[in-house]
């Protein structure tokens, strides 16, 4: 009897310990994002981070404590390779558009559940949502099924208007213009510099296409679709033409850069820089704050790339936590926080976001709040904010320039119509990499090449002579 009592007591203790352990288990949301791409609470003393605020939000809404593990990556490719190994798992990742397509093709993602991100559905820009819905994926679905927009922008040219005119900057030709030899930089990136190359190769076709659209011969949708087709050409003939074109460009460059171009354009090392719109805004602000210099931004008239980074859920993800986080960062007030911290443009619209950019860019109000629109340009951003603004808001911001920070962050409708999404290179990926390797190969000056072969020749003669001498030396000892 005593033994039986001890056995029962042991079971009760074990059950109690197991129950306590279960109660102490805390779910963890694992996020993988770009470096410096979220409000980490460092902008103001005493501020909290977006991640800590989400934990509080989740507890208040669901009465459940959670933890968040937040890791960062530097490139889409490094992120992809990390996930492919399977050694590390994440619930939420934020790749760029082409990498999302690659991950879908590799069967790595889970679709979002309908109705699980109501805040995103309400406040995400209709333009961005339509862009996702109109981008098909390899499995017959669309980008909207697998991704929710986070940040977006264009690829264009930052320039110093004291040295280059707005008219010159309206075409991709400027990067190849020998009048600016050594004053141009481009991205040390296959995809971004390839965009410049392919648009320049097919410049005449793009100009004719633009004329067709402006003369009403094709619709806006047809215009954008054709630009998309041209920009995504990567057949062997196109690769050959782009290689030749980029080799010419290389002779005109100050150099290839990853991040230094943002400051090179400010300190005058270069006058023209291929840039993402978010980095362009950074350079513009830095130039104005440090040197009282005004920089400008251009999306060439022939067309360019519109890009976005979006939240996706890898297979095995805790979809409940992942979708709750997407909804949380999609609140307009949180979108504003992230924009202020990161400097890029959120995919989220809403009145709070509009009010914030109005505070930044609208030049029609004085310090007392009086409005005077004389000599200012009414800039319409309704295509982006449609359906998310208060009834009494007209979606107009008054500005003195169409090449400044407002245009850089929110290009007008005419600009986005001539921008397209760049697809994954697919089966041609290795061929594109080979082409890029040829572009980046070091070109030695003629005198260095001649000197090299002279040295090789001298070395061959020396070795041959030395071998003959040693052979004679050995034969002498044999005798």
For the sheet with most strands, the description reads: 8 strands, mixed
Counted by DSSP, the helix tally is 21
- Say how many strands there are: 15
What structural category arises from helix and sheet content? alpha/beta
- Low-confidence runs of at least 5 consecutive residues: 9-22, 444-453, 471-479
Broad shape: globular
Straight-line N-to-C gap: 107 Å
- Residue-averaged pLDDT: 90
Strand content: 5-15%
3D structure, described in words:
Strands 5, 6, 7, 8, 9, 10, 12 and 15 form an eight-stranded mixed sheet that branches. The chain is an alpha/beta fold and 479 residues long. Mean pLDDT is 90; it is low at 9-22, 444-453 and 471-479. The chain has helices at 2-24, 50-62, 76-85, 97-105, 118-123, 126-133, 143-146, 190-201, 203-214, 220-231, 236-252, 261-267, 277-291, 319-329, 332-342, 351-361, 382-385, 405-409, 413-417, 429-440, 446-478; strands at 27-34, 66-73, 92-93, 109-110, 148-159, 184-187, 253-257, 272-276, 296-298, 304-311, 313-314, 345-346, 377-380, 396-399, 419-420. α2 (50-62) links the parallel β1 (27-34) and β2.
